Amino acid sequence: MSPLPEGVRHFPLYLSPQQQAALVEKIRQAVQAAPLFVPAMPRTGKEMSVRMTNCGELGWVTDKERGYRYQPTHPATGAPWPPIPEILLSIWRDVSGHEKPPQACLVNFYDENARMSLHQDRDEQDFSAPVVSVSLGDDCRFRIGATERNGPTVSLRLASGDVLVLGGQSRLAYHGVDRIYPQTSPLLKNGGRINLTLRRVTA
Ligand code: MD3
Ligand code: FE
Q: Do the domain assignments include residue 1?
C-alpha cells in the first residue's frame, strides 16, 4: 500500500446512502436547468468521453475554438449556472480548511466506458485553495501522481459517498480516472458515475 501523496486526504463514505440519494436529486435538478454538454479539446476539437455541467458563479467549459476556461453562463443556453447545493457548501466548510466558499462545482458524468486521461488542473488563478471532490454512483480507479508528468503514480479506488481533498503539494499533481467499475453501486438507476469538484477560481 503506497501512501497517498502529500496533501491528499481521502474520506471514505463521508456521505451516508441517504445523503447521497438527496444529493443526486439536487444534481438531477441542476442538470435539468443546465444540461450536460460534450466537452471538446482545444484546437483539435476531439470530444472527451465524460459529459459535463456546472453549478456556482463560475463553470469550467471547453470547446475547439475557445479552449479551457471558466465562464458565468452555460455554453448552450447562455443562462447563469444553478447554485451550488447547500450540502456541498457544508462539505467544503468541513474539509477544505479554506475561508472562502467554492465558486465552481464541476459536474462530471461517466458512463461505463468513460475515462479521464492524466492531466493537471491549472485553469484557476488561486492554487492556495484545495479542490474538493465528491464521488457518486459506480466505483472508479483514480490515479494521482506528482507535479511532473512522468513522476510515480498511485491508484485509489473511489466509491459512492467518498470525499477527496487535494491541497498543498497535490493541488498541481497529475491525475485521472483510468476506468469505471460497472454495477458496483445501486445509487444511479442507469448506472455510471458522477464526480463533483468544488473549487476557488479567482485570485
Ligand atoms: C488532483 N475529475 O474534473 S476528481 C477534474 O473523477 C477531474 O471526475 C476527476 O480530474 C473525476 O478535473 C477526478 C479528483 C480530483 C480533482 C481535482 C484534482 C483530483 C485532483 C486537482 C488536482 C489534483
Ligand atoms: Fe482534474
A: no
Q: Give dist(CA 92, CA 199) in Å, integer.
A: 9
Ligand 1 atom index nearest CA of 164? 14
Domain of residue 134, residue span: 8-199
Q: Check if 121 has its Cβ closer than 6 Å to any atom of ligand 1.
A: yes
Give the residue, by CA position, lying nearest to ligand 1 atom 14.
Answer: 133
10-residue block means of pLDDT along the chain (203 residues)?
91 98 98 98 98 98 98 98 98 98 98 98 97 99 97 97 98 98 98 98 96
Distance between alpha carbon 169 and the CA centroid of its chain, in Å? Answer: 18
Number of structural domains found in the chain: 1
Q: Do the domain assignments include residue 120?
A: yes
Q: Could you tell me which residues come within 8 angstroms of residue 147 by beta carbon, excluding any fewer than 6 positions away?
A: 120, 169, 172, 173, 174
Would you say the CB of residue 51 lies under 6 angstroms from ligand 1?
no
> Could you tell me the CATH number of the domain that includes residue 119?
2.60.120.590
Regarding the beta carbon of 166 and ligand 1, being less than 6 Å apart is answered: yes
